[in-house]
Amino acid sequence: MGEAVGVTASTRLSRVVERVLRSRAHGLLSRRLLLLTCTALPSGRRITVFVEYRDADGALVVRSRAQRAWWRHLRGGVPVTLHLRGTELGALAVVDESRAAEGRVEVLLRVASTEGQAWRLAGQASR
């Protein structure tokens, strides 16, 4: 039906979510989801995943199951691009693997400042 051979249901879902998050209708999903783009190692290709996030003292925290592969590209603190609430932002991603034995990891995303103002989630005061 016009789909590439081997395209899974999760791949189709990812494509739909990415399209919504990049559209003017992003408000349907962007209060809890963001797009994270990083460079895959060692291939150098750009990958984009959608992830659920929460705010933690001005940074964003993403949780993932340890068995997932995407977060492994972020080890060592790497720059990433976020598509958050309709806006592209640069950020530094740092992985916390202290709970990997329990089957989960956290990724801390520190969003780069813009014009001297730290980016804040809607509803929070600026610094």
Task: Write up this protein.
There is one protein chain. Strands 1-2-3-6-5-4 form a six-stranded antiparallel β-barrel. A hairpin with a 6-residue loop joins β1 (33-39) and β2. With 127 residues, the chain is mainly beta. Mean pLDDT is 84; it is low at 116-127. The protein has one helix at 9-21; strands at 33-39, 46-56, 59-65, 78-84, 87-96, 104-111. The chain has one domain: Pnp Oxidase, Chain A (Roll). The protein contains one helix and six strands; from the N terminus they run αββββββ.
CATH domain class name: Mainly Beta
C-alpha Rg (nearest Å): 15 Å
Strand content: 35-45%
What's the β-strand tally? 6
The helix tally amounts to 1
Q: Please summarize the sheet with the most strands.
A: 6 strands, antiparallel, barrel
Outline of this structure?
The chain is mainly beta and 127 residues long. It has one helix and six strands, in the order αββββββ.
Question: What distinguishing features does this structure have?
Answer:
single chain, 127 residues, mainly beta, Pnp Oxidase, Chain A, six-stranded antiparallel beta barrel, 1 helix, 10% helix, 39% strand, globular, disordered C terminus
Which helices and strands occur, and which strands form pairs?
Elements: H1 9-21, E1 33-39, E2 46-56, E3 59-65, E4 78-84, E5 87-96, E6 104-111
Antiparallel strand pairs: 1-2, 1-4, 2-3, 3-6, 4-5, 5-6
